[in-house]
């Protein structure tokens, strides 16, 4: 009976030892799973940040292209206005050489129209500059 009791005690100790090992393994497995979960979460956050940065870069590139197009349009408009100024100067010189008052009146009317157009162009240019400044900020 003593031998059986010793045998049971020995088996109980082995079972307790195995239980302790299994509990330790389980705790380590749970920690590993938490680490994996944390790492996965961080990886997902990093991926979202990278996607946001990529989207931001695409938006910035699109804005740069838009501003380039606006700049090209402004340069074309400036060239057109310079041509109009040269034409007006030539007309003014022609008018100065002529003594016809009707031509002078027509020329003044044309100058008023040109001034209105130039004023509108200046407003549009101001808006474009404000838009560019806002986009760059």
Automatic annotation (TrEMBL):
Region span, Disordered: 1-42, 118-137
Residue ranges with Basic and acidic residues bias: 1-34
User: What protein name does the entry list?
Assistant: Uncharacterized protein
């Amino acid at each position: 009976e003593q031998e059986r009791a010793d045998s049971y005690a020995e088996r109980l100790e082995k079972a307790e030892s195995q239980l302790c090992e299994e509990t330790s393994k389980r705790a380590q497995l749970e920690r590993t799973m938490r680490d994996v979960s944390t790492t996965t979460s961080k990886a997902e956050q990093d991926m979202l940040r990278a996607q946001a940065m990529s989207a931001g870069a695409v938006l910035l590139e699109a804005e740069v292209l838009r501003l380039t197009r606006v700049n090209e349009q402004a340069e074309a408009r400036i060239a057109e206005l310079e041509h109009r100024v040269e034409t007006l100067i030539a007309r003014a010189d022609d008018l100065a050489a002529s003594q016809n008052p009707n031509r002078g009146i027509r020329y003044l009317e044309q100058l008023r129209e040109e001034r209105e157009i130039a004023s509108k162009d200046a407003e549009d240019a101001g808006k474009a500059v404000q838009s560019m400044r806002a986009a760059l900020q």
